[in-house]
Amino acid sequence: MTAEPAKLDVSLQEHEEKQEWWWIAEKKRSKRLDYLRKAVWKKGALGGNYAPGIKVDLEGPKLFTDMWKWWKFDPIIMRRAKALAHVFDNIPIFITDHSQLVGYWGSAPHTISWRVDGASIVNEELYNEPGIMPEPEEESLRKVAEINDYWAGQTAVDKVARILDPEDAVKFLSGAIGWGAPTSAYGYSGKNYEYYLKGERGFEDIIADIEDHIAEAEEKTIGVPGPDILHIYDRIQNWEAMILVLEAAIRFAKRYARLARTMAEHLETDEKRKEELLRIAETCERVPAKAPRNLQESFQMDLLIQTMSRFEASEGAWPARPDYYHGPFYEKDVLQDKSLTEEEATDLIGEFMIRAYEVGGFGPRWAREGMQGITGTWVWTIGGVKPDGSDACNALTTAFLRTARLIRVSNPTFAFRWHPKVSDEVMRECFECIRHGLGYPSFRNDPILVANCMNWHGHPVEEARTWVHQACMSPCPTTKNGVQPFRMASATANCAKMVEYALHNGYDHVVGMQMGPQTGDARTFTDFEQLFDAWTQQMQWLLSLLVRTVNLGRYKDPEFYGRPFLSGITERAVERGIDAVSPEGERGNCWITAFTWVENADSLAAVKKLVFDDKKYTMDQLITALETNWDGYEQMRLDFVNKAPKWGNDDDYVDDIMLRCLRTMAKHSKVMRCTSNNTWPAAPQNVSGNIHYSSVVGALPNGRRLGDALYDGGISPGPGLDKKGPTAVLKSCGKIDHVADGRAFLLNQRLSPTQMAGEKGYQLWRAYMRTWADLGLDHIQFNMVSDKTLRAAQKDPEKYQEVIVRVAGYSAHFVDISRKTQDNIIQRTIQGI
Amino acid sequence: MKCPECSYEAPVPEFRYLYNVRIDAPLTLRQCPQCQAWLSVDELAGESTGKVEAGDAPWGKSAGIERDLEEAV
Ligand SMILES: [Zn+2]
């Protein structure tokens, strides 16, 4: 298939006037990209449910379980390696028509993968999930039941849950204060790109290195007896497991090569496609065994590694820096050698994004609700600086931005590392993406975040400058000692509970149990300091509990789970013979995701103002109103909303409370320590946890009822409460020290498509962005879709399948998210700038 | 409160509370326990202001420039 664009008919200008960007994309992209984009199955849950036709993959789980059972006497890491290798060697593979990149996390394009050894509770949920069993359903259910029976009690979560403190375990599992699981079976895997994606090294090179390490170690195990050689036996096992999996990974790629070659030689009649299939074959014979030599090989290596990592663990994020690592190949192929035309390269770039969009695994309901419309947070980092501080933007940076507008996928999205040397050309490309309603790239303030990395975790500056988004927001270097190999998601705090528990003596009226410490009956509080003291204690208790689960998970993970493949691509593990998740030699780069944060400041300010300063209401009245979910207290509720200062209006009354909360939390972040004895800063942001927790967080003094969505951003003002305009929002947010007060702070802003039209719109936006940078904010992202379009999409979803919105740290197709989330997005203030 | 769809009558809290996307407005969404219709409810008046269908905007336009521009006209 050629790279020429599909035929144009209805005027593009007409679509542009109506802001129907999806039609423009369809008309401008090549026939190949059009086919690939439309042929892809949507794996993200719609609201909370999978799309019709999506089935769980039972091939991989069966292969894995069979071989796991077979090697029951092996050391656990070898057992895992052999089971994984068996999947690589036997799972059915396929090549999509017209595609040039291969590799999928499942046996067929419509399947979602299933991590059988992660958590029994997830396995049970999968058994009960309607509509996802392959036909014949009865037989599939029998297979699932058999697999579930086998794994019950011996999954990673079962193992760690048994040794958690029982009280911590019950409170954590209540679902009220956090989510995620303290295991590397699910979560966010950092990638040591500096080790394996610089075009310098293939798996054969890594294997050769490991063999040297083993030979050296074995010299010691036949040497002088003593305690200092005992740990080496375990290390040799780890190394052997790495080799076993890396070799299987090479074979996995070669299976694709063989399939492509067979198709080319025996099945394909079209000469052009035959050539493409042979190129796929050559590519997969080359990578990942050897270092890539061109753009296609570089993309293919990256994609295969991401795919294979997911066969090992259900990785919920896709940290990447594609322009930086693939850029040199783009420049060589397209600009220097001219072995690829720009259009041919666009096809590869577009497909690289589509192959990532295609990836999906089964997630429990809380995860589906918390990340509506997507299957994980594939936030790809672009732009930024090189380790020497010079501009890292290259020709591939703009090529990715241009291609994103043609492909219009909601996952991956881009986050752009802005710095003062970024060219106007690149900024215009970024702006075009936002103007086209993609909601991305989001903007990250690079100098601030590099300083933040150095401040919280002590990364040397050259290391800090390699950072990528490990999930939605938090920066993670890609270096040997700087990379966090695995971020377990259970350090995700439902922070609105801090103020809720401070008001209810630590008791949770929603789940009906004593959760936090008993910090006193709030009805008897006589001044604000008593309330703030209770809040502080609840905050410390809540964060400490969650952090304990992760620390324990990290400590026990090599024994309970183990990641031989991830270890094989992580320099620190290869060098030392440890499992990658083991903290040995890791600098430590932890963070707490702080969901539902801003409610704390707005609630505390409202109590201070109306109860303690103005004395308009008593604590007793307030607690009674909250206990009835404000039913029958509407006027009082409106007073708490409208007669108390709200965050985001440049009002020091509430902004000072926000800063005090953040700084009290930051102090505790330094008291808590990770497995590398480093700090635990918080990153306020919500994914779509603000919707998930709407039925978990009780009524609050900021005026919300149980059931209402929480505020959408990490530091975004409440929808409609930012009444003083965009500069006031930036000024409030600019009072936060984005280096020292926490890890990262998510700010959502909505802009008017009408106001942002044309060159004038761009210039207005640039001026606004200069203010943003000057005030030292670390993050901002934009929605630029009108109320009218969004309401029309609610009314007639079929017609508006391709409308994309920025939800929180990610984007989603508007029609895939729940009505409540949709309404929440529509009611965000559209700022005129 | 009376349901404008099926005329079912009961105190407001008996209509299942759904949500309010504009915390600064007294307008909420509740569901009629008899006919299951989604209703917009004026919590101050204790009355339903009507049935809410997909794409309806009981809160009106979102705050900010577009609303300001409209009001200025
Ligand atoms: Zn009714």
TrEMBL record, chain A:
Cross-referenced InterPro entries: Form_AcTrfase_GR_CS, Gly_radical, GRE, PFL_dom
Coiled coil: none
Cellular compartments per GO CC: cytosol
Molecular function via GO: lyase activity; transferase activity
Modified residues (Glycine radical): 809
KW Transferase (keyword) present: yes
Matches recorded under SUPFAM superfamilies: PFL-like glycyl radical enzymes
Domain Glycine radical stretches: 713-833
Domain PFL: 31-705
Stated name of the protein: Formate C-acetyltransferase
Domain of life: Bacteria
Keywords, comma-separated and alphabetical: Lyase, Organic radical, Transferase
Automatic annotation (TrEMBL), chain B:
Identification of the protein by name: Uncharacterized protein
Disordered as annotated region, ranges: 49-73
